[in-house]
Amino acid sequence: MIVGAGFAGYRTAQTLSRLARGRAEIVLLNPTDYFLYLPLLPQVAAGILEPRRVTVSLSGTLPHVRLVLGESDRIDLDARQVHYTGPEGEGGTLSYDRLVLAAGSVNKLLPIPGVAEHAHGFRGLPEALYLRDHVTRQVELAAATDDPRSCASRCTFVVVGAGYTGTEVAAHGQLFTDSQVDRHPLRTGMRPRWLLLDIADRVLPELDERLSRTADDVLRERGVDVRMGTSVKEATHEGVLLTDGEFVDTQTLVWCVGVRPDPLAESLGLPMERGRLLVDPHLQVPGRPEVFACGDAAAVPDLEKPGSYTPMTAQHAWRQGKVCGHNIAASFGDGRRRAYRHKDMGFVVDLGGVKAAANPLGVNLSGVAAGAVTRGYHLAAMPGNRVRVAADWLLDAVLPRQAVQLGLVRSWSVPLDTASPELPRVPGKPERDQEPEQEPSRPGTGAERAKSRPGGEATSDQPGEEPAKGRSGGEPAKNQPGGEPAKNQPGGEPAKNQPGGEPAKRQSAVVPPPDQPPPGRMSRPDPSGVPTALPKETHEHR
């Protein structure tokens, strides 16, 4: 039984499937039917790759693995059962002989005023799709306005966190908005402005200083305003207040300050290390030989650096998944156990265009050579979709990018503080780590729900609340990108008593209108404000 199909969970299932050869039942529990190749997510937000290019079908690539769609709610270690909730709200229970916890990680939060209300993370496909639509909309609105202050605010994009993800988002974002402005000119003298903030003293502090310097030079040459040693003190609806006292007017702030382990690991009541489940070098939980853990959810001893644990990166998760699969097979008498050891093979950072920074096998590269190595590495590492990804790269090189809003993901559906960044929030459906509503047919107001949470009273513009009409980022007009479809139009309101339609009268269920928050909840404004400092010990997932 494998919980989670990220880098660690997918590789565990793949390895076990190959070793078992049909002699064991392998069950994979995951909220989505795909494996997400996270390193290419910034290219989805920048319009280079289509969303499905970075998703690999689980059933298509793991034919001998039973896929169960759902999110794990509770694990009963004594009964050896996993309780889960399916995508349509149905509950279920799965029994296991061996359990692999590979639930991954979620956005890391810091106690900075306004972050939870105005920030958007970058951990899942819904967030990337939202950012792509949002950036496109801001440039289009800026091009249409005569107000210089509004134009400047809409064309200012702030990214917090200069690790792998934040650096790539800013690098690709600058190229994306520049290409848009070439077709939608702004007021005379105005250009899109991207800010990259971090309290560290340099970009990509995890890498060699030469690679860091290469990335910094590329960003600055491209026009990105790189500010090291600077963070965000407070986020508001109008912008962010920086730690140096400057207030930046902006409608967009992206939170890339790192990750924290999925809360599911902490709910087991087992020994933890900074939110990660403690395991031995063989990836087994001490005292629970039937339980294994790997990836971001596990604190795996680093045998190359005694006394420390392996960082939360995709490379470690992928390699740990392979070792975990072998050790599970060994627990049934097939082969011998292995301790997890790793050798640093280098890192790659895609900076957009033909630029990148890389140090494969310790050889520092930059420019076109680094770009070729970086894209070659990603094609080799992806478990599928290689031809489609390469085709999109080729098309992007010879054709202009399509800058259109699809309006598929609304601001309120991708809150920063969520235990499931891979899924957009659904109206009326509680988060995995929240208690369900007592009366589904009479949802309480946003204020009533907030009172039951830490922090007490609800404030306006909370995630999941509807923005006031007429405000920036508010409700679009019907039949506009991101707006509510008109009735009887494609994507509009279904007919009564039809599948997905309005319930018949005298039925107890209350179904929110399409693309609207639950009754009593008002969606927060579009502007994504994300102030935040990046702690030096934070690890980027790569």
Structure description:
Helices cover 27% and strands 17% of the residues. The chain has 542 residues and is of the alpha/beta class. The strands form eight sheets. It has a six-stranded mixed beta sheet, covered by helices on one side. A hairpin with a 4-residue loop joins β15 and β16. The chain starts with a strand and ends in a 91-residue tail after the last helix. The longest helix has 20 residues. The radius of gyration is 23 Å and the shape is globular. α1 packs parallel to α10.
Number of helices: 13
Protein structure class: alpha/beta
Report the end-to-end length measured between terminal Cα atoms: 25 Å
Poorly predicted residue ranges: 433-542
Average predicted confidence as pLDDT: 83
Helix-strand layout with pairing:
Blueprint: E1 2-3, H1 7-20, E2 27-30, E3 34-36, H2 41-45, E4 55-57, H3 58-61, E5 66-69, E6 71-76, E7 81-85, E8 91-95, E9 99-101, E10 105-107, H4 115-118, H5 125-144, H6 148-154, E11 156-160, H7 164-183, E12 193-198, H8 209-222, E13 225-228, E14 232-235, E15 239-242, E16 247-249, E17 252-255, E18 259-261, H9 263-266, E19 272-273, E20 276-278, E21 284-285, E22 288-293, E23 298-299, H10 314-331, E24 348-350, E25 356-358, E26 365-366, H11 367-381, H12 386-398, H13 446-451
Parallel strand pairs: 1-2, 1-9, 2-5, 9-22, 11-12, 11-17, 12-13, 20-23
Antiparallel strand pairs: 3-4, 6-7, 7-8, 10-18, 14-15, 15-16, 19-20, 21-22, 24-25, 25-26
